[in-house]
Every structure is written in structure tokens, then in C-alpha cells.
Amino acid sequence: xxxxxxxxxxxxxxxxxxxxxxxxxxxxxxxxxxxxxxxxxxxxxxxxxxxxxxxxxxxxxxxxxxxxxxxxxxxxxxxxxxxxxxxxxxxxxxxxxxxxxxxxxxxxxxxxxxxxxxxxxxxxxxxxxxxxxxxxxxxxxxxxxxxxxxxxxxxxxxxxxxxxxxxxxxxxxxxxxxxxxxxxxxxxxxxxxxxxxxxxxxxxxxxxxxxxxxxxxxxxxxxxxxxxxxxxxxxxxxxxxxxxxxxxxxxxxxxxxxxxxxxxxxxxxxxxxxxxxxxxxxxxxxxxxxxxxxxxxxxxxxxxxxxxxxxxxxxxxxxxxxx
Length: 323
Description:
By secondary structure, the protein is an alpha+beta fold. The protein has helices at about 15-40, 45-75, 95-105, 120-125, 130-135, 160-170, 180-225, 225-235, 240-280, 295-320; strands spanning about 85-90, 110-115, 145-150, 175-180.
């Protein structure tokens, strides 16, 4: 008894054609990526020079970002948002100082209030270099007043802190208020300028990287003008012709970005020793940091995108002229 015939459902011709086109498109992408990488390896000196220029150009914004982030961290540690020292009048006793501290602690813009006794102030003064002899020369009477250390609430801007200091000066029991608001405003202004400089520098160097990749791709296309002309004559599309050059731009950008990240890490290592000494000199309060991992990993990807854009623009223009 013969086996029943197996009937296969016929696949529509349009679907088979689309599948073949997709397979061919995917295969050509793989071939273009590998072929462009082989071309870069065939001229190692020129490739290394291009990658080195890209790496140095892209490492500069990373280095400035590292410097600016650590300056901001140092500013926070050294008193970017410092406590306000409120010196009471000489006739104010401890009970009055604590009562005023409780009233100030109820304010919404105040995070905490610390009462510092005259003896604590005298001990701190004696601990300072050069003042111990003067402190010991004093009589038993302590001339220092009671001090309230007012810590502003986190997140207050400079104007709000200035308003808080002004209100403290208006208290009847207050003799003097010390607030470094002017220093804080100058630091904020400098950090603002630094952020803008980093953005402008990053934009200019990104444009330089795009031009470097574009010029390299232009030279490569010009050296293969006859080959490209033959491909266009036999019916190859512009996308088919320029695809290897787009991958070359991606490789240039990817390698240049990776070199930039390595150079940034080398700068961190070179500064690690002096930064540690500086941190120890300030009692470990500076909290100097390093570049975040997402930035180090994102730099090669961003550079690869820049390389693709540069190669895309140049190859489109060159192929337009070839027609």
C-alpha cells in the first residue's frame, strides 16, 4: 500500500522574493562590515593616524568633564552650601541662645541649628596654629560669645540663603552673621561657565572628528572612483555602493572613541596620586571622583555615530558627483 502523498502549502512568490532580498541585504551588510575592516587593516599606518587624531580630539572633552566634576565636588566639600554662623550679643546667656536656636530650627528653610558654647569656640581657637599662645595668655574670663550654626535646607539657591542670612541679621539678640554667599555665587558662576565651555568644546571637537572621518572616506572613495563607476554602470544602487564606506566610518569612530576612553582613564591614573594627597590634606572630605562608567562606554558609541554621519554625508556627495 503506497504512502499518501504529502502536499506542501505553496509559499507566495512575493514572500519568497522578500525573504531573498532581506537575506541578500543582511549578507551584504556582513560582507561590508568585514570588508571595510580588512581595508583598514591593509593600511595600518593611515588607520592608526586617523584613529589617534580622533582619540585625542574626543579625549579632551572627557578630561575637561572630569576636571569640572571634581571642581564641583571640591566646592561642595569646601563649603559651596556652608552653614551660617550667627554670633550672639555678649549679654546673651546659654538659655537665651538655646531658645533662639529652637525658634530658628522651626523655619522651613533651616535644616538644623547647632549651639556652640563660648568654651567650644575657645577650644577651636586654641587648636588653630598660632593662636594657642594667645588663648593661654587670656584670663579666666572667656571673651567669646555664644554662636548658633545654622545649616540651610538642602537645595536652597543662593538668593534663598541670602534672604535667610538677612533675616538672621534682623534678630534682636544677634550681633554678627557670617555667610559666604558672595563666594558661593562666584563658584556657581564659574561652574556655569565651565559647563558651557565643556559643551562648546565637545561640539567643536565632535565637528572636527566628523570632518576627519569625512575627509578620510572622501580620499578612499576618490581612490576607487573607477570601481565605483563600474558598479553604478552595472546597476548597483547607491546604498549598495556606499555601504562599505559607512561601515569604515563606524569603525574609525568606534576605535577613536575607545582610544579616547582609554586616554581618559590614563589621565585619571596619572592624577590619582596627587588627588589622593589633596584629599588626605583635607581630611578625606573632598570626595574626588572618576568618570562615570556610562560615559566611558558611551564615548565609543557616540564616536561611531559621528563616524557614520561623516561617512554618510561625504559618500552621498561623492556618489552624486560620480553620476
